[in-house]
Amino acid sequence: MQTSEAMKTIQIHQYGGPEVLQRIDAPIPRAAPGTVLVRVHHAGINFMDIHTRQGKYEKSRTYPVRLPCTLGMEGAGEVMALGDGVTTHRVGDRVAWCIVWGSYAEYAVVPAWQAVKVPDALPLDLAAASVFQGYTAHYLANDVGQLGAGKTCLVHAASGGIGQVLIQLAKRSGARVIATTSSAEKAAVARERGADLAVLYDGGRFVEAVLEATGGLGVDVVYDSIGKTSLRDSFRAARTRGLIINYGNVSGSVKDLDPLELGESGSLFLTRPRLADHLRSADEIQRRADDIFSALINGSLRIGIAGRYTLDNVEEAHAAYEERRMVGKPVLDIVI
Known about the structure:
The protein has helices at residues 47-54, 124-144, 161-173, 184-192, 206-213, 231-237, 260-264, 282-298, 314-322, and strands at 6-12, 22-27, 35-44, 69-70, 74-82, 94-98, 107-111, 116-117, 152-155, 176-181, 197-200, 219-224, 238-246, 269-271, 305-309, 329-333. The strands form three sheets. Strands 3, 5, 6, 7, 8, 15 and 16 form a seven-stranded mixed sheet that branches. The protein has a six-stranded parallel sheet with strand order 11-10-9-12-13-14, sandwiched between helices. The chain has a three-stranded antiparallel sheet with strand order 2-1-4, with no helix packed on it. β9 (152-155), α3 and β10 form a beta-alpha-beta unit. It is α/β, with parallel strands linked by helices. The protein folds into two domains: 6-117 and 304-333, Alpha-Beta Complex (Quinone Oxidoreductase, Chain A, domain 1); 136-274, NAD(P)-binding Rossmann-like Domain (Rossmann fold, 3-Layer(aba) Sandwich).
């Protein structure tokens, strides 16, 4: 461990744009009972970081992060110290975690039950880039959507980090995948990841392409992370008694939905799941991690790192991500 008692962090003390990010020296924390102190090698960047900075979780009960806080809710590194009662880890273990804020720092304290062990064959930067997106796609494909042979799904925002992983897991299950994106370039990314068909949103006219591809029936499952501008079109693209999974609201929340619309659209099922409710135990988290990590190691799953930044230019990283100038999943490289 470094000799200095201070570490670099990126904190916010108010909500807003990238300009509210502050580089602050803070004391190196100690491992509390039931936790591990980790030297952070890499931290991921994703929309949860952007939404935290913007204040979208200000009143959330599922993700109770409050001001002031150190940003970064996923990362990977090396265990440096164990809190009282920790028997599942050892000093020197390579671990990764998500939904634990504080990764934009040189050291982070992580509950031991949320820190998964990273195989030696997997680089830590790839581990940091894969936990949030990987876990999310894993529960969406396997637990909520229950994809498999004979099923067809529609994946919105298919060139994004979660979308790319979701396509690959869906194809692994035997499902047919129709993808939507905002540009021909991004559609090519979706096809490269395995989508059977990739079309543009085109103001909601993607629905016609979906219906044509499914013989007029619609898809079994829709994965909608966009929200306001797409959800009702997602209803039109689903089959009778189909499942709509709204797991994000990048374009804003739908605040005027009458449940009657679900009936009128074909007795649809609508759910709004959250990752935290699918990571309820150490065994569940490690099971998802083992599946994702092994697939990355054997090459059956690919996750690209679209950008690398340091604590000195994290504002640039946030701006690039928020403006959607990156395709895929970036990683914030923390330089010690």
